[in-house]
Specification:
heterotrimer, A mainly alpha, B mainly alpha, C alpha/beta, A: MetI-like fold, 13 helices, C: alpha/beta, D-Maltodextrin-Binding Protein, domain 2, 2 domains, 5-stranded mixed sheet
Amino acid sequence: MTVHPKTFGYSFRRILLYVVLFGTSILMIVPFYWSVSTSLKLERFVYTSPPQWIPNPLVWVNYIHVLTRIPFPRYFANSVFVAVVVTLGHVFFDTLAAYSFAKLRFPGRDQIFFIMLLALMVPFQVNLIPLYKIMTLLHWNNTYLALIIPNLTSIFGIFLMRQFLMTIPNELLDAARIDGCSEFGVFRKVVMPLALPGVATLVIFTFMGTWNDFLWPRIVINSEKLFTLPVGLALLQMKNTSNQAQIMAGTVLTALPMIIVFLFMQRQFIEGMTAGALKE
Amino acid sequence: MTAIPLPHRFTSSVKKYAMPYVFIAVPVISLIVFLIIPMVVSLWWSFNDYSGLNSPKFVGLNNYVELLTKDKIFTKGLVNTTMFVLLGMSIGPTLGLLTALMLNQKVRFRSLFRTAYYLPVMTSLVVVSTIWLMLYNRNGLINSVLQTFGLAKVGWLSNPHVALISIVIASVWQGFGFETVVFLAALQSIPRELYEAAMIDGAGGGAQFRYITLPALRPVIVFVYIIGIIGSYQVFDQIYVMSSGGPVYSTTTIVYYLFSKFMDLRLGYASAIAYILFAILVVFSYLQLRFSRERA
Amino acid sequence: MNTKKMLFCLVIILGLLLSSCGGSTPQPAVSQAPVTTQAVAEPVTITVWDYYGEATPIKPLIEPFQAAHPNIKINYEAYDWDTTQQKLNVVLSGGGAPDVVTVDMTWIPKYAAQGAFADMKPLSGGMLNGVPWEQAYTAGALKAITYNDQIISALYDFDTYALYYRNDLFEQKGIKVPTTWDELMTAAKALHEGEQYYYEFDADTFHGSQWIYENGGTLLSPDNSTVVFNSPEAVEAITFNDSLLKEGVGLNWTTDEGERIQGVKDGRIAMFSDGPYYMGIMKSAAPEMAGQWRVALHPYSKQPGSYLGGTGLAIPVASTKQEAAWEFIQYAMELENQIGVYTLAGAAPALKAALSSPEVNVEDPYFGGQKAFSIFLQTMETAIPFPYVSSWADIDAAFTNAMQQIALGDKTVQEALDEAAATSQEALNK
């Protein structure tokens, strides 16, 4: 192999790149390391000075407490169920609607889109009580329906997918139509596969947003049987005191599934599909 | 041209437009039932004094007048929130784009790096705020680091001149991963051939960025800014956990103030705050969308 | 794709599992006041909301209560403090209010002003477990639960402030435990060393009001029509508080100092003023300091004083089962059950008899064998609840803002309090 003049420069750039990436990653991770570390400590060692970076003694009691004293598996299952259903709903409805807004022409298209955007501009607190009353009217209070149906689709997701779909060349769509595909067929066979990086992004955001949703579930759900994780974990905070270590254990357990989903999504969709796109 | 019987043209018209409407039907209905109707109700409340428990008392535009002319805390909130948005939306998307560009190179462990950047975004704002509360401690990590460099300790959350900046830092740290993920997905949709062709033509990195990357990213940049501004203007969780709007209202934001009014059972007043914010955001978004379309 | 199919199956399975055991609970009928109450002879289910969390003294009452009252079933729902307040706001307007709810006394002004809670006088016939209300509670406690001559909640646990101090340091340095403000200043000066052993205080209404009360002032005039927290006595009081800061012996505890327990443990704090629940926090988070701390009546200039807060049990006016709700509340206020407030939750029971009972007023080894609750009982005698006016939230915010400005040194005491008084008076007049 000849020594290309650029070899050294290239290596230096690559090293710099890795250093920057690594350094900033550490910055992102340190606070989380701290909460994991706290979760493995006894309460009396949580606030020590100087701070204890490595828990000593390292105890699992907080995790055991969280997993046994509250019905963690139940809350977990609720969170998974709601998040999965909502995410699937979003993937289907949001992408479909986004396709309409991005690629199809119909009267009122841009106006309707803008009006839908307006929905994002009002803080949720303000709609809380009227929405709650609507739930009462529909008898959906304290049911899974209240957690799922109002969240099956969102303009956030539609907006996101619309921007992604706008980059799809129209010729591909026309080609499919000429071949005799119905609009829905075009959507299924041409649009969806090309939109997969966007869909993966939507899945990540939607799953995460639903998983962490706290305000609405705690208002509309009364039965412990239907609590999602954030609502259930809040119970660990007693009236006047709070066991920091336990709370950290609870939050680590809550964040873990999402990290797994994220890693999974990355590999399966983004990596796989971009390989497909490159081949074209 | 032979005359086409009217019914035929009509049905083909309907057929042409039916599908788009069908596709957007579910979101539109969902929007009307779960968002528009509550919004109409709360808009009505904004013209009343309403505690939620007893009947609303109509007061016309009084709430709005008071908010815009007499309420000094609301004015402070408006200023604080605008500062927050300006700072956050200059730094956040820039960091996001930079990291996305870095990650788009052939790096090893890309998914691990991506996870690291996205970790804060995946965590709820409440947890992130709790963690930063610890970091901003008078004797916490950040001040300890400052001290080792011989600098003075900073009252990150107790100094009214610094508190808002502290919240911005924590928020940007938490949020720029969002932009990273979105930009990265967009970058990866750009066909490699375009870059290869450009290189053959002799275009350098800078030109490639300007003529290939940036235009391809435009739709996503528009998205990031519109969503970002709408979202940042509604900043709440960090304030709630870290500063409770203080000290001396230096970190009070519009939604935090709204929330406090809501908790005081002043629903009419709170709703009025919401609709002033709404008006601001409508104007912003409309301008942004127009601007982005004109360029096309 | 395989993954998609897997996800679908997972969802279906979970959905089947959860829907077979999930479901809604019977909702109490939405109704407006006035309300017809049911005779307790018919079987009835009441919903109880409890924010105590894990170590709750209320949940253990359910079984024995149901056993003693076979026709009353309890639907028990637990939420944390924040959630309870938010939910209560929503259900009081949106329907679905519980029959019994734990309310923080600081919430009472806004709910009382809106007539949200039922009057317990007619429900109870003037008696709490056979004892007139006036004898069951201290005068201050009774005032705290009375609004417009109605008793709108039963005080369940109380919160008043006493002085916590590092007795070991006092003995070591030969300092006398302060009973007056001058002595407090002397003690603080003698204790303070470098960055350690401060008198810690919070710049808020809870603590600010204490100084004012101790100097003979109040926040509002007795008829709640005029703001008087900028009166000469009040200004003098806050000036003393500020002097602790200016002399370098007081520590204003801002958010970035962290949790106060941190300061307790690392020695930054040698004295502070807080309520009985803090004893529990110290025991669990700072067990290594056992024996070093004591509590005492907070030093005062003219008379002892403190804010009065705590938790009350209230019945929303929309409840259709007020008689049954009252039965449960009365049960919770029985002596043995009030004692449970301490033994189970580490909080201070509001019933006078419980406070002075041997089970509660124990010699506490953590506090050197001191009978800490006898001190808190003393403070309860002179504690004053916040005024119940509908604009209380605005007044509270203005006063707290003034305290913060003073602590930052942005304004003088007189300026800050005058400005806050003007804002508050405006709010009060509406």
